[in-house]
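From the methods appendix. Each design record in this collection lists the tokenized structure first, followed by the designed amino acid sequence. Records were kept in a plain field format so they could be parsed without special tools. The example shown here is representative of the layout used throughout.

RECORD:
FOLD TOKENS (143 positions):
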């Protein structure tokens, strides 16, 4: 079980960092914005499903190992926070972005105008929070 836990943690956290910090920036530096966005979107969608599977496994495994007192521990909340970030970004924010891409009406966008750039920024902020939670999770001794 230790090995499976290590693989799940590495696959999920490594994916978060690799796609967000390396692959997406390279795509946008190398390709036109439309193609880069399409490929990045597919990568982030696949990573979300990986995160859902790995996150649920890691959370269940942690509770199995530590017991109910695990909900009082930082590791539980780091995994749960990463999982919440995945769920919110994939099932709430991404569909809004996809809809806005179809219309691409960015008139009167403003700071909280609900346009593509605003929702993309919200998604990026959630991803940043998830990445920082992942860092804290990886460096914890009891994970």
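DESIGN:
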């Amino acid at each position: 079980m230790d090995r499976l836990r290590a693989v799940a943690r590495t696959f999920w956290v490594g994916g978060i960092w690799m796609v967000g910090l390396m692959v997406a920036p390279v795509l946008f530096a190398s390709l036109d914005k439309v193609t880069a966005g399409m490929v990045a979107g597919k990568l982030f969608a696949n990573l979300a499903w990986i995160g859902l599977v790995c996150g649920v496994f890691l959370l269940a495994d942690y509770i199995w190992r530590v017991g109910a007192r695990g909900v009082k521990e930082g590791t539980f909340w780091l995994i749960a926070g990463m999982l919440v970030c995945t769920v919110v970004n994939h099932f709430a924010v991404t569909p809004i972005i996809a809809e806005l891409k179809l219309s691409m009406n960015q008139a009167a966008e403003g700071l909280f105008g609900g346009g593509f750039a605003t929702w993309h920024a919200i998604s990026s902020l959630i991803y940043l929070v998830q990445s920082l939670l992942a860092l804290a999770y990886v460096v914890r001794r009891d994970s």
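APPENDIX NOTE: Confidence is low (pLDDT under 50) at residues 108-112.
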